[in-house]
C-alpha cells in the first residue's frame, strides 16, 4: 500500500503518487496512520480527531522550542504572541493550501458537496493530525522535522515583530517610537438600522498631515481599517 494516495472522489483531484510525502519530507512506515490523519469524521468512524489532539500538542511544543532558541531578543510575552499566531487555524490552513492537502482528504458526501476540502477548520485539523501521525509512526524527532520544514519557511516570509498585532497597535507603537503624537479617531457617519449599522471613522495625525478613513460593521472595525490605511501611508513614505 503506498504511503500517499489520491482521493478520486474530490472534484479537483491531485495526481496519484507520493507528492504529499515529498512535500512533508517524510515517508510513513505505517501508511494506515497517514490514511487516518486524512480521514474526516464525516467519512468513517475511524477518523483523525484523536490524531489532531496529539498533533496540536506536538505543534505547540515544537514551535515554542524553536522560537525560544532562535529569537533570544523576544520577551516571554512576545514569544507567546508569536507562537499563538503560528499555531492558529488561519496559519495551519494556509500551509495546508500550499500542500494542496484538501485534495488528499477523505470526506463524507455532504462535506465534499459543501466544499469541505477548502474549509479552513478542516484543513487545519488535518494538518495537526498529520503531525500526530508522524509522531506515532516514528517519534518526536521526525515530527519536529516535519513541523519545522513547514513553519520555518513561513516564518522567513513574515515580520515576527508585527505578526498578530492589529493595525491600531502597530500604528501606535510606530508613532510612539518616533515621538509623534498619537492619532485621534472620529466617527464621521453612521448608516443603517441598529442591528445592521455601518460606521465610517476618520483617523487623524495632524503632525504628519495624515487623515484616513475606514468603514466597518462596528466602530472598532472601522477604526482598524482607518489605522491600517494610515500605517501603510507612513511606512510607504518612510516617515
Account of the 3D structure:
By secondary structure, this protein is mainly alpha-helical. The protein folds into 2 domains: 19-156, Orthogonal Bundle (Ribonuclease iii, N-terminal Endonuclease Domain, Chain A), CATH 1.10.1520.10; 167-237, Double Stranded RNA Binding Domain (2-Layer Sandwich), CATH 3.30.160. It has helices spanning 19-24, 31-37, 49-70, 76-86, 89-98, 109-113, 120-138, 140-156, 167-177, 219-237; strands at 184-191, 198-205, 210-216. The chain has a 3-stranded antiparallel sheet. Strand 2 (198-205) and strand 3 (210-216) form a beta hairpin. Helix 2 packs antiparallel against helix 7, helix 7 packs across helix 8 (140-156) and helix 9 packs across helix 10 (219-237). The radius of gyration is 22 Å and the shape is globular. The model is unreliable at 1-17 (pLDDT under 50).
